[in-house]
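Lab notebook: predicted structure, single chain.

Context: the supervisor wants predicted structures on file for every construct in the current expression panel, including those that have not yet been purified. This is the next one on the list. No modifications to the sequence; it matches the entry in the shared construct table.
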Amino acid sequence: YRRQHTKETRLSQFNQTDIKAMLGSYTKVLFVRDPFHRLIATFLQGMGINPSFSSFVQEVLDSGIHNSSMAWKPLVSLCRPCLIQYDYVVMFGFLRQELGHLLRRAGLPAGSLLPELTDTQVQWTYRWLSEQMFSELSAQQKKQLSRFYRWDLAAFPFSSSFLSD
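Prediction complete. Output recorded below exactly as produced.
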């Protein structure tokens, strides 16, 4: 898009005509991740100051959707997939396969640009971590988390998520 803007400029600061022109001029790629995996990653990175995963989850639930950190805010509220027509949606856990396809579609040599990704190991590790962390939660917390992320679960194919009903 030809209009000059800084990296910090938010899309919402432009008028509808400019927004439409900008979005139409870019290839839009959305990277999505199972919301429960995002919570686990945030907890493991130390963003939650609570000693247990259950306490961390309660902190997330108590913050509410509107006051939540970007690290665990529902994706639908961050990336607006109902308003923005993304050209590609790339699922975490399938990065090697999907990034290869995306690079080929862009006319780039996929093999030489992709880092060594081991999707199978990532999926197995998160499956194991999810089982462990999910077992720490109360039935009420599980239900509340499913409700907290209900729009993400409806918008994206997280069928194997622990938060799916």
